[in-house]
Amino acid sequence: MHSNTASDQPTTKRQRDPNRPLLSIVVPVFNEEDCLEALHQRLTEVFADLEDGYEIIFINDGSRDRSAQIMRQLAERDPKVGYYSFSRNFGHESATSCGLERANGQTVVIIDADLQDPPEVIHEMLERWREGYDLIVGQRTKRDGETLLTKATSYLFYRLLSRVSEVEVPLDTGDFRLMDRSVVEAFNQLPERNRFVRGMIAWTGYRQTSVNYHRDARLAGATKYSFFKRLRLAFDAICGMSSEPLRWINTLGMIVTLLSFTGGLVVFAEKLIFGIGIPGYAFQVIAMFLLSGVQLLTLGILGEYIGRIYVEVRRRPLYFLAEQWDPRERHEGS
Prior knowledge:
The protein has a 9-stranded mixed sheet, sandwiched between helices. Strand 3, helix 2 and strand 4 (about 80-85) form a beta-alpha-beta unit. Helix content is about 50%, strand content about 15%. It starts with a strand and ends with a helix. It has 11 helices and 9 strands.
């Protein structure tokens, strides 16, 4: 099942670039020692008959378990595997960005290591790519193994982001997607340090469509995204994709001003016209708490944007590499 989300239909079939493998599979990894062997086996089985070649790029985001050791072993025995290990945990968005910078394929897929996203769907994505689409996103129709809170917050987040974002971000999608080389190269030109990768990819435009799929439960282990990490990602997404929260401050300020003016009129009428005595401290306490809450909310939103400016002007690298194994270097040297 698929649906077109682009404004224009592709008109030409895709031409192969003989100087690149057809497919690069980028896998961000953080403490996934129980999943890596199974993921590699499943990928090799799914793409065993892929004529134009593929590569698997693991990005170790400062894992503290045996993930780096397992990736090293996979790379030693499989010439299609490369890996890059960060000097510490820089975050999922930085790991994904690193993978997109290092991938060499004519198409690039982002997939998590936990096998919640079935690799078999990539074949359908490739078919949409061959039809001329540049960006094919995986759209989840069902999500196994996730709590009601996770599903509810995810549902609300995507609807809110869709409402405030300056570009259309597909609903109910994650990082699982296939991109043409043109999309990858456009993404790699974006200089932001505060990153919401799926939103940045959507911002590049190009011809997009979606492929529906059933998301499985994790193969092993627990999710690395706690409630607070998801909340942090939501703030990054909304502030990175929209200036709408700043407009909310203006609206809120006007509402509070109107309420204060209305309250003053009510007090004036009750005191001077109807002769009703109103204790002064009650009104003062209510007004104090209301205005204090509004000020704190306003400062918080402004601080979020100012903090993002501070991060951007420092111009620090997204990550540092402690170890790398590039499959292209091995092929060139052989």
